[in-house]
Design brief:
The chain contains seven helices and no strands. By secondary structure, it is mainly alpha-helical. The two termini are 27 Å apart.
């Protein structure tokens, strides 16, 4: 029986000399690593991967870190994760920058409708309605759609959809916890 493959953050290279040097101290990848290392995988129902023949399996910690960071970076497919790791753009391998092209502004075909809606929302009555809607789940769905870029399911079957939704919600909450972690108000136990 072989042991599962785990991340070795102390591994040294020629340039940069260490994986730790690829990412700053406040990078979200470090927060995700601390979060995943604080989890009790047995209590959460994860099975320990066993490899009897061939190459050893990847550890649950490494896989969950990769998936969570992939979702943070809007990478939701296994092929996209593989491509990001292979191209040295991936912070579980400690990435430097997720977007090499910089910021782009997209003006869509519905520009006129958006402008009309903005004008409509300037009325006092509409602002009251909008304020009352802030306390329900709708803003969270909007943030997931716009900020995280999640617009459709990439899996089939109710169990797979539930799993993908759980990952999305976990990443949404991790992004909020990350702000507290940066301020030092959140300490994760390893």
């Amino acid at each position: 029986m072989t042991r599962a493959i785990r991340a070795d953050y102390s591994q040294t290279f020629l340039l940069p000399p260490s994986l730790e040097d690829w990412v700053g101290a406040e990078h979200p990848a470090r927060f995700i690593r601390d979060f995943v290392e604080s989890l009790d995988f047995e209590a959460l129902g994860f099975r320990t991967p066993l490899g009897d023949t061939g190459r050893p399996p990847y550890s649950n910690e490494l896989l969950l870190s990769a998936w969570l960071f992939g979702y943070v970076q809007k990478i939701r497919s296994s092929r996209g994760l593989e491509r990001a790791c292979r191209d040295n753009d991936y912070p579980v391998r400690w990435e430097c920058s997720p977007n090499k092209k910089g910021r782009t502004i997209i003006r869509g075909e519905h520009e006129a409708a958006v402008s009309r809606q903005r004008e409509k929302q300037k009325s006092v009555r509409q602002q009251e309605i909008i304020r009352s809607r802030k306390w329900i789940v709708e803003p969270i769905c909007g943030q997931i759609k716009e900020n995280m870029g999640f617009r459709r399911w990439t899996v089939r079957g109710i169990e797979n959809v539930r799993t993908q939704w759980s990952l999305i919600c976990t990443v949404f909450n991790l992004k909020r916890l990350y702000k507290h972690w940066l301020e030092g108000a959140l300490v994760l136990n390893r």
